[in-house]
Every structure is written in structure tokens, then in C-alpha cells.
Amino acid sequence: MKKKVFAAVISVAMLASMGTGAYAATKLQDIKAYLNPDVKVKVDGTPVQLKDVKGNAIVPILYNNANYVPARAIADALGVAVDYDEETRTIIFGEKVDGISLAKGFNSMYHTKDPAQTVYKDKDYKEAYFDNASGNRGSGFTLNPNKEYQKLYLQIAAVGEDIEELIIKDSDKNTILKQVDVIKVSDGLVTIEVDIGGVKSIYVTGDAKSDGAVFVPLTTSYFK
Question: Could you read off the pLDDT of 33-73 as tens digits, one per residue?
Fold first, then answer.
């Protein structure tokens, strides 16, 4: 539900806070707009009061029959991280990664957005691969870089029990790109860097134990 609200609001969201230097460098145009205090905001059915970074209440602005609110206020209301890259003039929602997040187009029965399963060590990653099935098992998923990237940065953590024989392979050539003998619970969240130049499809698999789970934060794992 949050995803739908978020997508709808982004279409009418204003730019996040920018420094005076950034304003001077942009091609700004004067407009005539109106404060519109009659507009109210709900998130998942609950009324919320949008606020700025100082905690002051925000009133939407009506312009050309559309209501505009600051992107940061919406992100705060939805619990989504937001940042502004002044150099590229880009508003960044969600985790900031130096590439393309694995969350985009990820497909697995263990793909979850449930906060009960996307939180690791008190941080909510919003989307994760979380395999907590029963019994000793092979836990795996497919990625499709389609020969568009050079590197895979995969973050993974063992929960409850160690993960053994983690293998990342080129699915088409059936060749191993990277192998890790064991990922220990005590290791915490580890990042595995893999060369994937020219690779179309990748299969990631590891041996999970009956009392263990495999946690992969999709928002901070990425292609580059």
C-alpha cells in the first residue's frame, strides 16, 4: 500500500531542499501558485501532518490544478530515506547506492517487504530476500544483469545458523564466478564483489540449515 501512495505522490512532489548555489545554477521560472490548506494527507488510511526539516507544518501548494508538496516531507511520512545530490541535481529516494539496486525487477518467492523480515540489526532495508524455510536446504535466486554491468555487489547475512558453500555462477555457461566456503552469523552483513562483465544471467545459491535464514537486503545490493 505504501508503494502505491509513494508512487502517486512522487508525480506531484516538489524538489527537495536545495542550497542557494544550486538555485542560482538552475533555470528557474516565476509561477503563480496558491497555498491549499484544504488538502489532507493519509498514509495507509492514517491521517498525517506533513512537516519540514524544522518540524513546522507544511501546506500543499496548488499549481495548474495539481497539488505539490516537498519530496522530503512525503519521504518522512512514508518512512523512506531521501537525499539530494547537488552535483547531479538528483533527488534520491530509498537507500543511496552507487549502481542499480537488485530490488528492481527481483523475482523470488522469498522476496519480501514485510518489516518483520526486512529489518536486520535495527535497520529496515525495505525490501529483502529472506529465506527462513524449514529444514536443511539449498537457498537460491536468479539475477539478470543482461550483460549491462561489470560488477555485482551482493550483501548477505546468515541469521541463526551459518550459510555454507555460497556459489555465484554464470547460469548460461554454468561457470562459477565466486565461491565463499562459509558466511558466519558472527560476520554480520557482508558484501561480496563479483565480476559479471558479459554475463546475462546469474544464479546465487548457498546451503542453509534448518534453524537458519538467509538475508539479502535488495536495496543495498546492486549492479554497477
Answer: 888 888 888 887 888 888 887 888 888 888 888 888 887 77
| Distances from the Cα of 212 to the Cα of 63, 148, 182, 184, 185, angstroms | 53, 34, 13, 11, 9
CA distance linking residue 180 with residue 169, whole number of Å: 12
Q: How far apart are CA 165 and CA 180, in angstroms?
A: 6
Give whole-number Cα distances, 16 to 93, 123, 165, in Å.
Answer: 10, 24, 44
Q: Which whole number is the average pLDDT over 132-137?
A: 96
Q: What is the DSSP string of 159-194?
A: ESS-EEEEEEEETTTTEEEEEEEEE-GGG-SEEEEE
Q: Angle at Cα 84 formed by Cα 124 and Cα 59, nearest 5°?
A: 85
Model pTM? 0.64
Q: Measured in Å, how far apart are the chain's first and last C-alpha atoms?
A: 30
Q: Give the separation between CA 205 and CA 138, rounded to whole angstroms.
A: 6
How far apart CA 194 and CA 2 sit, in angstroms, is 33
